[in-house]
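Q: Sequence in, structure out?
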Amino acid sequence: MSDSDTALVSACGLYCGNCHKYRKGSCPGCAENDKASWCQIRGCVAQRGLSTCSGCQDFEDVDECRKFNNFVSRLFSFIFRSDRKASLKMIGEVGLPEYARKMAEEKLVVLKRR
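A: Exactly. Output:
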């Protein structure tokens, strides 16, 4: 896999290619992580045949989705200043290959809240 492989973009918009667990070999990334059956987002995206939540048409705003916008994700966002919503928006605007390239180039796992 190249450093900007689109398969390394998780269902919720994280870029696994820059995650320290992925880099150390202790996690296969979202797409290959069969043990991540607990992740409702991953299951939902797979069931709908999508790559990420950015392709979902059920909600005008991803924050309306209870699978995406739950207590754990809000806590994660607060602690790590992450903005998965902005990541998904970027995927929708520039496409998965360009998003993966940009994240790999900037060595980001997720866009940061400003």
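The mean pLDDT is 91.
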